[in-house]
Amino acid sequence: MADDVLVEVRDLDMAFKIKGQRGQPTMLHVLHKLSFDIGRGETLGLVGESGSGKSTAGRILVGLFEPTGGSVKLFGRPITGPERRANLAAVRSRLQFVFQDPHAALNPRLRVGDSIAEPIDIAGTMSRRDRNDRVKELLEMVGLPRDSAERFPHEFSGGQRQRIVIARALALAPAFIVCDEPVSALDVSMQAQIINLLMDLQARFGLSYLFIAHDLAVVRAVTHRVAVMYAGSIVEVAPKDVLYEKPQHPYTQALLDAVPRPDPARVRPQVIGGEVPSLLVPPPGCRFHTRCPHAMPRCRVDIPVLRETGDGRQTACHLYEGPSVIPSAARDLPRSAHGASSAGDPSLRSG
Amino acid sequence: MTASSLVSIEDLTVQFRTDRGWTTAIEGVSFDVAEGDCVGVVGESGSGKSVTALSMLRLHARGTSRFARGSVRYGGQDLLRAPERTLRQIRGRDIAMVFQDPMSSLNPVLTICDQISETLCLHQGVSRAAARQRAIELLDLVRIPDASRRVDEYPHRLSGGMRQRVMIAIAIACRPRLLIADEPTTALDVTIQAQILELLRDLRAELGMAVMLISHDLGVIAEFARRVIVMYAGRIVEDAPVDVLFRAPRHPYTEGLMASMPALEGGAGRLYAIPGRIPDADEPIAGCRFGPRCAHVEAICQAAAPELVAIGATHRVRCTPRTRTSGTS
Amino acid sequence: MTEIALATGPAGGAVLAPRRRFIALRRLAAHRSFQIGLCLVLLLAVAAIFAPVITGIDPSAMKVRLRFKPPSEAFPFGTDSFGRDVLTRVLYGARVSLWIGLVVAVMSGVCGAVIGVLAAQFRRLDAPLMRLMDALMSFPAILLALGITAALGPRMESVIIALTVAYVPAGARIVRASALVVRELDYVQAARIAGASDLRIMFRHILPNSVSPLLVQMTFVFAYSILAEAALSFLGVGVQPPTASWGNIIAEGRDYATEAWWVMLFPGLGISLAALGLNLLGDGLRDVLDPRLKSG
Question: Which residues lie across from B180 on neighbouring strands?
């Protein structure tokens, strides 16, 4: 079982040093005690609004940032701590990244073939001929003509460039790809093509994805499990159908309610007020309590931690902790292992 | 179409200058906006939805674009040919606009109060003290908490959502009869988007103004508009009441667009994808510009460019096969 | 240049747009001021290169009897105080002046690019390198060059070194500014994720995408150097007679400016035309390469 966990993140903290209001250095805590696993062939969705830290988490996983706390293991090797450099070098070829903006992700001065082959060239493991054959093979894999290799990025549309970026990510046959908002810069009719391509490639090569996105509908289409982030922490993580059918955390509920549906007849639920709090002066206790319709006195003091609440779900919310909180609401969820009665959701959903 | 039309756009055709001469960005765009109406314009990049909006107020880039044909009628004048002075009066006072990026639309060195009063003073000639009072009222109206304090702040102190509220406050300062909102929520988070859309809905009801909402997001359009105009490659391809459009779209592009949206309500597996890509404005395509990507393309589609044909009192479609045999599903 | 290819991959129907190549070159070719500038510069360059063919006279051949002849059919630009043909001297002077301009532009460009990219890529080098550049920049370029040529002795090589030192800081600043933007772009991050070395990142990704503004700057440095060489030679610390440069021809002619105006006029025209041509060229380059500064 442990062999099948490609990514293991525990208590990840990340803080950036920034200039404060009077120019003095201040720490901006972007991630707080993040923990999750990603299995072989699995897609974990990481959703949240701006400032949730989802993109930073993805960048840490490919070694672009060194976290300030916690541990990250990739393919069983820790990329945090003293062995970081050696282990990163060892796992690099099995690790890739797909960017949001396909216009910024390709060097405009390089021919497409050279961009795609860059991971191969850096690894230096292939002869010139094998490399060029591999480029053609990769182009075909992502649905582009073989002769695209000779062209420059500006000759391609946004959707086609994203195919090129994906081809580059596949160059060394990686096992794990971080996709950071891979379709949000694309037009709706192009989005579906890229989503289908990512799913086809997963089926073909058994890839694992960390799929970072703000579009909840896209996330539902491509992922197996979903983690919802708010202001630097995961508030809920669950198999996707569990999460979308019965969201537990009040923030997850608010987020799902807020997504506009292509259904003019829909009765719109109450809109949640307020805004994401500043990470420089985060509110004490639960960071969502300033906007939460169910906030209790305790939420202003205690930071809730992720707990198993059944159905393979973990929620970080005081509503689902003590037996005394919502006694009547246990009907939707089985009791969790430690015997505390978990609270269900029906009374919380407004729509 | 309606008797009480506020703005009437007829055969609007706008061209852009490129290295290879003039290319047509939008062609033959015709529609009316009725008093108090709520029109959604939906389309992907290159559809011409923003060009249409900018052209209505003659805010297109001078020198690099031109009107080839058409008219935009408002209050008995053609805005495309009216003198610049008349247009300056109409902009902001009668027809206001809100854009996608609230940061670049606000001047960073002026306080919120300055920017709102600028519009007020320009169009209504109110005194500074009165303008400040009015600015606070407007901030209240767009639900900015603690308005009397916020009015003296600079834009960078505000979040994206708050900035967009300020933009809306400026836009409605003179009680316009039409508010054009070009992707007003695209840069915002989903919960903030819901707040802004709700605000726009409430303001429309309170002030009785017409709103033209431009978006790439069918969900936003479905939740906001009463009537929807679908654009593709510079042309209107379908125009219908919102419930009709989402229940029974007639144009293959509208169908494809809806089918390719992943649903929040579930359904895993491959998505329907419209094949091919959006054509460039100057790409030569015989007949229907959606033809090369259309699942139902026929010989007749390539023979001649289809016309926008009414297939009911309130429904127009630009598709030769569909309008010829209207009645089949 | 129009070929349309069809895809056969899993998604199918990924039709590419017709090919569009050399967009920048084509825009340049259509740019009016670039055309004029290029013509002027080429004209001067051709005249300089083929100077021996055009005149066939030795530029230092003195004919004292023919001193101060005004422009005529035999001497289209007249003769100077030693009876030398001014046309010949202006043509040979163009060789020296244009050569100095070109070498200074290229050398200061290359040094500026390397320093700018180093400063952007290695943040620890940034402060020392940029302070050094600031120090050099705080002197007026011509004063700095004057000091350096005075120290190195009045020779062409000294002029080149002095002007290169004087113009490196501007280039370094320009490259650093754009490199700082480029290094944060996604394709550079992609290279980092793939484990690319600093050298690879600098020379394959950052440098090629940061040099456009430098290219524009180089055309202006070319023009400034011609002017600066003239000034240095005029002050006597530049290229030394009998080697002709536009600067020292003017310097020699200044004592007789009222009687023999042609001695100063023609090299002066050469300088003006070269500076004008290079500036027009640079404007065209800037319009095409740097759309942010585009007017209209």
Answer: B97, B212
For A2-223, CATH gives 3.40.50.300
pLDDT at residue A316 greater than cutoff 70: yes
CA dist A40 and C233 (Å) reads 74
Phi-psi region of A4 (alpha: psi -120 to 50; beta: other; left: phi over 0): alpha
Q: Distance between CA atoms of A120 and B327, rounded to whole angstroms?
A: 57
Burial (CB count <10 Å: 0-12, 13-18, 19+), residue B282: middle
Q: Using the beta-carbon criterion (under 8 Å), do C296 and B63 form an inter-chain contact?
A: yes
| Class (C level, CATH) for C24-293 | mainly alpha
Neighbours of B157 (CB within 10 A): 12
Nearest CB partner across the interface for A143, out of C10, C17, C190 = C10
Residues C198, B107: Cα–Cα separation, whole Å:
40
Kindly tell me the sign of the dihedral angle through the C-alpha atoms of A154, A155, A157, A158. Answer: negative
A57, A34 Cβ separation under 8 angstroms:
yes
Written as one letter, the residue type at C146 is L
Q: Where does B5-94+176-264+271-324 sit in CATH, by number?
A: 3.40.50.300
CA B130-B133-B135 angle, 5° bins: 110
Q: Which of the other chains make 3 or more beta carbon contacts under 8 angstroms with chain C?
A: A, B
Q: Is C26 on the interface with B (CB under 8 A)?
A: yes
Interatomic CA distance for residues B147 and A346, integer angstroms: 36
Range with the poorest average pLDDT among A142-151, A325-334, B64-73, B99-108: A325-334
Chain A nearest C-alpha distance from C84 (Å): 51
Max CA-CA distance within chain C?
Answer: 88
Residue A336: pLDDT band (50, 70, 90) is: very low
Closest to A161 in 3D by CA, of A94, A90, A101, A93: A101
- Among the residues of A246-336, which ranges form H helices? 250-258
Residue C137's pLDDT is 86
pLDDT tens, residue by residue, B170-182: 888 888 999 999 9
Question: Which of B14, B38, B39, B40 minimizes the C-alpha distance to B28?
Answer: B14
Beta-bridged to residue B237, according to DSSP, are none
Closest by alpha carbon to B208, among B2, B6, B54?
Answer: B6
Q: Kindly provide the b/e burial profile for residues C95-124, where b requires at least 16 CB atoms within 10 angstroms of the residue's own CB.
A: bbbbebbbbbbebbbebbbbbbbbbbbeee
Indicate yes or no: CB of A261 within 8 angstroms of CB of B274. no
Q: How far is CA B226 from CA B153, B236, C200, C291, in A?
A: 36, 17, 56, 41
For A188, the closest of B193, B197, B261 (CB atoms) is B261
Residues of chain A with Cβ-Cβ distance to B242 below 8 Å are: 264
Q: In this predicted structure, which of A156-170, A295-309, A324-338 has the lowest mean pLDDT?
A: A324-338
| Cβ–Cβ gap C296/B275 under 8 Å | no
**Identity (one letter) of the amino acid at B49?**
K
SS3 A48: coil
Which ipTM did the prediction report? 0.85
Residues C69, C78 contacting (CB under 8 angstroms): yes
| Nearest residue of C to residue A172, measured between CA atoms | C194
- Which ranges of chain C have pLDDT less than 70? 1-21, 290-296
Nearest to B45 among A187, A261, A262 (CB): A187
Q: Which of B295, B259, B281, B257 lies closest to C13, judged by CA?
A: B295
Rounded Cα distance, B166 and A153, in Å: 39
Using a CB-CB cut-off of 8 Å, the residues of chain C touching A168 are 190
Q: Where are the domains of chain A?
A: 2-223, 248-260+274-332
61-80 of C, contacting B, C-beta below 8 A: none
Q: Is A310 helix (H, G, I), strand (E, B) or coil?
A: strand
The full set of domain ranges for chain B reads 5-94+176-264+271-324
